[in-house]
Write a structure and sequence with these properties.
The chain has about 675 residues and is an alpha+beta fold. The protein has 13 helices and 18 strands. It has a six-stranded mixed β-sheet. A five-stranded antiparallel β-sheet has the order 2-1-5-4-3. It has a five-stranded antiparallel β-sheet with strand order 7-6-10-9-8.
């Protein structure tokens, strides 16, 4: 019975899902904003660091270009030996061709300190001395403009003066060519720009460029937030290129990227300039407000959509659930008036209705399957028990024969030496039989453990068949059966394990002999092409007991033997065919069994892939001849000995008895 405090499905759809949905959206919005803020700051830091590096490279490149241009100008003929008018025209034209941050070019006579020519008036740029560095160009800084000065110099920063010596035609120092420039001009960046304002600080703390022009020329030690700037200066001089956030006492928060460049003025002292790209955190997060607005609109829209969806979908989802609930509650009753409905508008609920309708049938089917499996398990257990009983019998009898035969000889109970040899021969044959049973048990244990393996090599399948037929002919002759063979005369090259292949053939031919009391056994080979692959098939056909069609596939399972009084009188453990199938499959072949029924004989086919005959090691040809019938088949009659090839067989009691096989 339902608890009245429990909530209905409809109420859950409209309320609880909505209550869970709203917090998730809000948490998601907060997480998204934090992630967006972190991403924007990381992007700003990276861009500012790259911007600082670019600014530093531009400063160094500009100074290098100025030095090259000044050096080239000092070596021109006009400057070295031209008239004042020519030099004036040259300097004026050169100033126009140089970048716009070059403010003035001036040529000064070193003997009289008089200005020979100038592109910016007659006021001297800087005092001239007679000492020049080894590279020929001297660089000096220009002090910042005095407080209250107006004009372009208020925005021009990083003022430098470059001086190059000018020699006359005889190599005497005559003039000094000066170049005045301001490498940086502070401009107002657009909102959202991440290039940042430029700040250049010398290694001694002197500010060479600053967004606030009044601070140019001052030292960072004079500022109350100098500790953070000193830390940046130290890290940059140490070779770091990073970005950090600066927090000032007046509430400002800045993002700064920095790097260090070589001081172009004090190159010999290996000092540094630190170049900073600075912007405010508000500028770096300018796009965050738009993201926030989008998230708010999206959240409100999703909440409204979820509410409408819950109210709209509640009847469609609740009605089928309630109907199926009623059916499931009454499914145990034998008096259900109506079957389960299948006319829902939702496919999944119709499928669920069908599943409920089929559930009872499936349970019945599963019950039958369980019962069948139980019976099969009981049958398997019985087969195991029968196998243990059969194996115990198969092992005990040979052991008793061996023990009794040896004791007869040991206790000197034989009348003659011939009788002793007869008992010893019987013990030897029985020991071989017992060894075959034990080998089968070991092979089947390897099969079940997945450790059975073969070692393949190129060999003549026809020669293997002849050897096995020679071994098995004794048993065939003892039973008075006729053995016909049709193996052809050509070599049959295959890649297989010779010992394992012989074991399989002995098993199959031994089974045919064991279960055939009248008639004979026919062994033939045929070559064919299947699926583009050449194969050989050997067929062993007997006229013996035969097998019912329903029992044929079971014979390839371990421990299984054909039922019936006619077969139980034969010895065996039921392992031969199972082992044979696994060995043939490991060699890349197949084995099949066919029988029309009881007392109608059995036919076993073994198929192996052929290989190129050139891979075989040539074998010496036998000089023996075979007697064959007119149909090119060999016939075995009692009291005949086996010859090489398709021939006539006769008994040979001195041959080694073949290993017993089981079916």
């Amino acid at each position: 019975m339902a608890n009245p405090r429990q909530s209905s499905f409809r109420r859950i759809l409209v309320t609880r899902i909505l209550l869970l949905f709203v917090p998730v959206l809000l948490i998601g919005q907060i997480a998204a904003l934090n992630k967006a803020r972190s991403s924007l700051l990381n992007t700003a830091r990276q861009n500012l660091t790259d911007s600082a590096v670019i600014k530093g490279e531009k400063i160094l490149n500009a100074i290098a270009n100025l030095k090259i241009n000044l050096s080239l100008a000092s070596r021109t003929t006009v400057v070295q030996s031209g008239s004042a008018t020519e030099i004036q025209e040259f300097l004026t034209q050169l100033t126009q061709e140089l970048p716009n941050y070059v403010e003035c070019l001036q040529l000064t006579n070193l003997q009289s300190d008089n200005i020979v020519a100038s592109s910016c008036g007659n006021q001297a740029i800087t005092p001239i001395n007679l000492s020049f560095p080894s590279n020929g160009v001297d660089i000096r800084t220009i002090p910042p403009p005095k407080s209250g000065t107006t004009g372009q110099r208020k925005t021009q920063q990083l003022g430098l003066v470059l001086l190059a010596p000018v020699y006359n035609g005889s190599g005497q120092l005559r003039y000094a060519l000066s170049l005045q420039s301001a490498l940086y001009q502070q401009t107002k960046n657009k909102p959202g720009s991440l290039t940042g304002s430029t700040l250049v600080i010398a290694e001694d703390g002197t500010i060479l460029a600053h967004p606030l022009v009044d601070l140019v020329g001052s030292n960072i030690r004079e500022h109350r937030d100098a500790a953070q700037l000193k830390s940046i200066l130290k890290n940059a001089i140490a070779g770091k290129r990073e970005s950090i956030n600066l927090y000032f006492r007046d509430g400002r928060e800045l993002v700064v990227g920095y790097t260090a460049i070589n001081d172009p003025i004090t190159i010999q002292k290996q000092q540094k300039w630190v170049v900073l790209a600075v912007t405010s955190v508000d500028n770096a997060l300018l796009g965050l407000e738009e993201i926030k607005l989008i998230l708010i609109v999206l959240t409100v829209g999703l909440i409204g959509a979820s509410l409408l969806a819950s109210l709209y979908l509640a009847p469609y989802l609740a009605n089928p659930v309630e109907t199926l609930r009623d059916y499931a509650l009454n499914i145990h009753s034998h008096h259900v008036a109506n079957p389960i409905p299948h006319n829902f508008k939702i496919r999944e609920f119709n499928q669920l209705a069908q599943a409920l309708d089929q559930m009872v049938d499936r349970l019945k089917a599963w019950s039958e399957e369980i019962e069948t499996a139980w019976k099969e398990a009981k049958t398997a257990n019985q087969i195991k028990s029968q196998f243990l009983a059969t194996t115990s019998h198969e092992l005990r009898n040979p052991l008793n024969i061996i023990i009794n035969s040896i004791r007869f000889v040991k206790d000197d109970m034989c009348d003659s030496r011939e009788e002793e040899l007869e008992f010893l021969e019987r013990a030897d044959e029985t020991a071989i039989h017992l060894l075959g049973i034990i080998n089968d048990l070991l092979d089947i244990s390897k099969i079940e453990a997945g450790k059975l393996s073969v070692v393949t090599e190129p060999l003549d399948f026809r020669q293997i068949l002849l050897e096995v037929i020679n071994l098995q002919s004794v048993n065939v002759q003892h039973k008075g059966l006729q053995l016909k063979t049709n193996l052809g005369t050509e070599i049959i090259p295959v890649k297989a394990d010779a010992a394992k292949l012989k074991q399989v053939l002995i098993n199959i031919i031994g089974n045919a002999t064991k279960f055939t009391d009248e008639g004979g056994i026919t062994i033939s080979t045929s070559l064919h092409n299947t699926g583009g692959k050449s194969q050989v098939t050997v067929t062993i056909t007997d006229t013996g007991l035969g097998i019912e069609p329903a029992q044929q596939q079971k014979l390839f399972r371990p421990f299984v033997m054909v039922d019936g009084n006619n077969t139980r009188k034969h010895e065996g453990t039921g392992l031969g065919l199972a082992i044979s199938r696994n060995l043939i499959e490991l060699m890349g072949g197949t084995i099949t069994l066919e029988s029309a029924g009881l007392n109608k004989g059995t036919s076993v086919k073994i198929t192996l892939p052929l290989i190129e005959i050139s891979k075989l090691t040539p074998a010496p040809e036998s000089s023996e001849n075979l007697a064959v019938n007119s149909d090119n088949s060999a016939v075995t009659q009692p009291e005949q000995t086996p010859l090489n090839g398709n021939g006539i067989y006769k008994s040979n009691q001195s041959q080694l008895a073949p290993q017993p096989v089981q079916k």
